[in-house]
Amino acid sequence: MEIVLDKRAVKQIRLSAQDAIEEGDTETLRDDILDSFSEDQVEEIERRIDTDFYDFLGDTLEEWSGEDVEELFDLLESQLADVGVEVKYETVETGEEEDDAADFDDEDDDDDVDADEEPLDEDD
Predict the structure, then answer these.
(1) Higher confidence at residue 20 or residue 122?
(2) Residue 64, phi then psi, degrees to nearest 5
(3) Of 16, 23, 65, 92, which residue is most buried, by most CB within 10 angstroms?
């Protein structure tokens, strides 16, 4: 089974994990991770792990050092891979860079049109 978490979910987990690192509380983080998965995905995971996904996340968070967000993603990925669930993440940075690049290209196109029109106006 393959699960792809969208950019919004990844961003929420990252922010929640950073809060957990700063405050030392993982309850909100556990809830945010759980909310990142659809009900169908949770049911399939629970079928594979033979336990409650909420408890599974609690055990995973206990193994996490609580110091590095990337470590948390790696741990989640490896724990779920052990039960046959491949988790992939849409990266927030990649999406933003592509959006910024598209915006920049659009702005350049507009500038080029304006630049082409200005010399014509000056010659008249």
Answers:
(1) 20
(2) -70, 140
(3) 16
Region of residue 45 (phi > 0: left; psi between -120 and 50: alpha; otherwise: beta): alpha
Taking Cα atoms as reference points, which of 60, 10, 52, 61 lies closest to residue 35? Answer: 10
Of residues 32, 31, 48, the one with CA closest to residue 40: 48
Residues 59-116: tens digit of each pLDDT:
999 999 999 999 999 999 999 999 999 998 776 554 444 444 444 444 444 444 444 4
CB within 8 A of 6, min separation 6: which ones?
Answer: 90
Can you give the pTM of this predicted structure?
Answer: 0.70
Given the structure tokens 């990266």, which residue do they identify? 91
